[in-house]
């Protein structure tokens, strides 16, 4: 990092509140070299902490300005800021080329004013109140854009949206990544259908959610028609349209759509298809064994994801279709399958044995998948997710834990997972994320897990109803490694958790930034007070807290949000279905004091990622 201009004096020693800017009188201390502060200290601080430091004195303000001017990537998605705060932050980051923002509290002018020619990557999330004037202005203000992510709310007209989007895309000459997510409960037949003729030739990644099967099929067919490549030669010719990654969320996945995708996009590396049919699809509008066979022609495919909701599974796919797919899928490194209710161990096992370089394997709602499918599986697995597979037991997990490279293990909804496998899990020195949701584990199992040398950052125990406060105390016993690494903890839907368990969490989990306690009926105001007064440094402050349906919490907890410096760093608070759910007016003053804080009264999961479009916060 190069620095120009007059060298400022070394900063005086000060104690600074990173959220409110409150400080003690400055005292003389040993000066630190400017290069140490700029190159080693400032890069480790969060944006709000840097902005607070700039208010301490002119010396720090000058140094913060230098540090911010060198930042190229700015991600503000962790909180919903208002227009003034956003403008203050962006104005200090003059060299920014990548910007991600939460637009829930922003108006048109706030967003338009921060767009500039230097931006090459732009992600606008939770655009509940922005008009199409903002979307239309992106092309003119950011002509060199390579990445565009839009997350919009339902209620918009597909026709108006399509026409506006078409005008935007015409202005981009180098767009490589396009992701459009419209939050809708029902896929409209005309959703996003107008963009088909206007996708840039430079595009390599495309995500559309939602889009109808009819529109998706026509879109892919138009790509082939534009290239004028005969169907029998399409895989022998390198296309001018270089799309390599395709993600579609549809009303239904069909054989004809898969056939069109595989024959029109010969360079495809990643294919991600998800559908949510409300009723049983009829032929020919469904995926069958024949549709899976078309995937065999994708020579470059390394990532495959086909997911259907558990309500209406794939009933026309059986072991034969999976066996035919496995014959030519040896290059796959990531597989995600959901809703394959009629596929047995034979089909899943064939995939696991055929893909020698498989790193990520996920199966959801596979009612016939059992431990036998994982016999003698020896691969470099990094991520393993077996979700709501009722026949999976601890034996399958033990069989798979021979992989010393495993970093993510998720068995959420596998209720036959019990204590015996925790003894093996505790030896996984690479494991950073563990989800045991709904497992039949006990306090004793958690004591074994805590004694292991595990660098777990994320631990989810939701629905482990046999775990009590004692288990949490054992897990976070003094000296356990997990005390230092644990950042996210979910103990929701666990009736055995009370204030004692929360006290253990507060006193031992040094790095905790996210805690979910929803449906913990025995948690009281005492726990809320402990969390509010938790002492930690700027990087380990509690940022997200979910107490939805904690029915013993009273309106008295509001005072802990009003007082400084309690709950320093809190960015999201879920209070749905508590005594505070109908008292949103009480949070008016809190919102003014804490512009970074989002309070959710609607019962959303942490962050409102899938519920923000339905309520005001």
Quickly count the helices: 21
What do the pLDDT scores average to? 85
- Give a count of the beta strands, DSSP E runs of length 2 or more: 20
Weakly predicted, low-confidence segments: 1-29, 186-190, 227-239
Largest sheet: 20 strands, parallel
What integer value in Å does the Rg equal?
26 Å
Question: Helix/strand/pairing class, anyone?
Answer: alpha/beta
Model description:
This protein has 617 residues and is α/β, with parallel strands linked by helices. Among the domains are: 1-70, no CATH class; 541-617, no CATH class. Helix content is 28%, strand content 15%. It is built from 21 helices and 20 strands. The chain has a 20-stranded parallel beta sheet. Strand 3, helix 6 and strand 4 form a beta-alpha-beta unit. Helix 18 runs parallel beside helix 19. The longest helix has 15 residues, at 213-227. The radius of gyration is 26 Å and the shape is globular. The model is unreliable at 1-29, 186-190 and 227-239 (pLDDT under 50).
Keywords:
single chain; 617 residues; 20-stranded parallel beta sheet; 21 helices; globular; disordered N terminus
